[in-house]
Amino acid sequence: MKRSETFTTVLTEAHAGSRIDLVLSQVFPEISRNQIQNLIKAKKVLMNGKVPKPRDIVEGGEEVSLEIEIDEGVSAPEPQAIALDILYEDDDLLIVNKSAGMVVHPGAGNPNNTLMNALLYHYPPLKDLERAGIVHRLDKETSGALVIAKNEETAEALQKQFAERTVTRVYQALLVGELISGRTVDAFIGRNPYNRKKMMITEYDEELEENPGKEAITHIRVLERFREHTLVECHLETGRTHQIRVHMQHINLPIVGDPDYGSRLKIPRKFTHHAENVLRGFRRQALHAYQVGFIHPKTGEDVLATAPLPKDMTTLIDAIREDHELYVKDHF
C-alpha cells in the first residue's frame, strides 16, 4: 500500500542559474533527475505555488514542494545497539567514522544494521529528522568521516554549506597505476542509462543544448608513489554520487579493489608473496573519507575531523610500500 507525502524546501542563492530539475535532483539526491522530470510532468512539483517546467531557471529563494508516493510496506528504521566510532559530538551535531561494509540508510535488502539504525539508538530524537539528520553519504564499502545534524536548524545550515561548496572533504585512495604529479579532474557525471546503479562521465548533448550530467570537480594530490600504485589525496569541490571512483576510472587510474569502476586484478612482476596475498585479499574499493571540515552552524567556529585510515587499508599500503622498497633496493 502506498501513501503520498509532501516534502518542502526553500532553494538558496547557491542554486541560482541552474535548471529546476537539476537543482531538485541535487537537493533530493535519492531522486534521479529523470524521476524529478516525471514528477513535474505529473504536476507533483510546485515552485512558489505553480507547476514549473523542467527547464525553468532557479533564482534563489523559491519555495518548492514535491509530492512523492511512499510504500507503507517499508517500516520505519528501528534503533539498534551498534557501536559507533565518534570523531566529534556536541549538542547540535556529531561526526562518525563509518566502517567499510556498513550501509548508511536502510533500504531493500538492507533493513537493519545500517548507520541510521545505530544513530537512532545513540540519539533517539533523530527519528524526527529527515534521513535521521544524515546530511551527506558514503558508499557502503567506503569508510570514513560522515556528518550528522541533531536538529533541523543545524541540518539546514550544513546542507547550505554543502550546496555552496564551502565544506572541506578530503579522501585518501590507492590507485592502480602511476600518477606522476597532482592534477584536477573536471568532468561532468551522470547516471548510466544502461545500469542505473552506476554513474558515468557525460558529454554535451546537442539536442538538449546542455550536458545532461552534473558538474563534478576533483583535485588530486600525490601522497606516495610505488612501483605500480599511487597513494593520493582527493579534495572534492563537488560531491556527486561515486565522484572519485568515476573520475579515477576516467583518467585510467582506477581505485584498487573497485568492483564497479576498477580494472581486473593486476599483480606487478616480481611482487612479493606477502604483497600479492594482501592485494588479492582486499575486497573493496581502497577509498577512505579522511577529513571533513565546516563552520559550526551555532558557534561559528571551524570544525575539522580526521578519520584515521582503517586497518585493512594500512595493511595494504604497508605491504605495497615494503614491496616497493625491496624492488628499489634490488634494481637501483
Key features of this structure:
alpha+beta; Structural Genomics Hypothetical 15.5 Kd Protein In mrcA-pckA Intergenic Region, Chain A; Pseudouridine synthase; three-stranded antiparallel beta sheet; 7 helices; 14 strands; nine-stranded mixed beta sheet; 332 residues; 28% strand
Descriptive report:
With 332 residues, the chain is an alpha+beta fold. The chain has three domains: 2-71, Structural Genomics Hypothetical 15.5 Kd Protein In mrcA-pckA Intergenic Region, Chain A (Roll); 86-163, Pseudouridine synthase (2-Layer Sandwich); 168-293 and 300-331, Pseudouridine synthase (2-Layer Sandwich), CATH 3.30.2350.10. It is 23% helix and 28% strand. The protein has helices spanning 20-27, 33-41, 115-122, 152-163, 243-250, 273-281, 311-331; strands spanning 2-10, 45-47, 63-71, 86-89, 93-98, 143-149, 168-176, 183-186, 189-192, 195-201, 217-225, 229-236, 287-295, 302-306. The strands form three sheets. Strands 4, 5, 6, 7, 8, 11, 12, 13 and 14 form a nine-stranded mixed β-sheet that branches. Strands 1-3-2 form a three-stranded antiparallel β-sheet. The longest helix has 21 residues, at 311-331. It is globular and about 70 Å long. The relative contact order is 0.12.
